[in-house]
Amino acid sequence: MPSSKRREGDGGVGTQIDFAGWQVWWRGIEFDVWQARYFDPIRYSYVVQSHIIGRSPQEAFPLVVPPSTSSSPILSSASAADLLILEIAAWNSEVRDAILVFDSGYWQVDRKLWDSVQKADWKDVILPTPLKSSVRHEYRSFFSSERIYKDLDVAWKRGVIFLGPPGNGKTISVKAMMRGVANGEGVGKETKRVLYVRSFHTYAGDEYGIKQVFERARREAPCLVVFEDIDSLITDNNRSFFLNEVDGLEDNDGLLMLATTNHFDRLDPALSNRPSRFDRKYTFPDPNKSERRQYAVYWQDKLANNDRIKFPNKLLDEFAAKTDGFSFAYMKEAFVSALLILAGDETNDLTFPRELMAQVAALRKELDSDK
């Protein structure tokens, strides 16, 4: 099997089982497990059959189940093999170190997104202090307030929208929230499931996709459900179906829904102006002068150990003054471009302050032209 990346080597050897048998011991009981893989010419596909053969009668199995499930007809009449299968299925359905993503018509485990989310930290998120505190409070208070919602006879569900121009911290804030929820931040380290929706499209249409999303969300509740770029997810054809699911014709207890949009004006008023669906809207504006200086300080700290980079304090104020109207994405581009120019300089004649401000000037022309 070739490597996924050439730099990782020539690849390795994979194993495919066509016919095999194992002896399995589980809770003191012995089983034979057989597996066969063969080509079915009628289906024109490969078929895998697995057989579990129990050597011990049901009476020999020391059945111990929690009180809440002891009356279950499935468990009370289950054989040892049945319980083995249930335990394997429960273990196999656990999502470990991954985010469940709905895309291309089905749920899939995304470990790359999980890795990206784990790198997001609120200390790296530069926002106005009230906004940052309010956003963090949203998920902390929601998952710890079930009893309060019930006592007030209010449905335990909530919807939040992050809106504003691109490049101003929505994405990293979403990832920081996902990390906080997944790691149990603020709720006694009690982890919650995070579901991420990229598209509703399925072979059976958007309505089927929406149904799949909410069925899984209700099954995983309490959980966080993230709708990326909701203005592109909701169309005239699927809008009413989505609204019905959000309104909770079925039980939506425990669902915290987070949506993002760069084009709030494109959202249907039934979503944007209906508190019972998406209760709060948080605007991520272009950073002010203080926040632009704070972002420059972030880069100054990041480059502090680089002997080639001289980053004087006076550059902080100059940068903040010259970047009015810049988003965080634009400011990042200025720093990255300046560093790349320095990396390719073999004469050592270039200086970081001069190149940084040259990039700011170039981006200013681009920004003014776009406006």
UniProtKB/TrEMBL annotation:
Any one Gene Ontology cellular component term annotated for this protein: nucleus
Entry-linked SMART domains: AAA
Top-level taxon in the UniProt lineage: Eukaryota
One matching Pfam family: AAA
Keyword match Cytoplasm: no
Stretches assigned to the AAA+ ATPase domain: 156-288
Any one GO MF annotation of this record: RNA binding
Sorted UniProt keywords: ATP-binding, Nucleotide-binding
GO biological process: ribosome biogenesis
Annotated InterPro entries: AAA+_ATPase, AAA_ATPase_domain, ATPase_AAA_core, ATPase_AAA_CS, P-loop_NTPase
Family: Belongs to the AAA ATPase family.
Protein name according to UniProt: AAA+ ATPase domain-containing protein
Organism of derivation: Filobasidium floriforme
Lineage, top ranks: Eukaryota, Fungi, Dikarya, Basidiomycota, Agaricomycotina
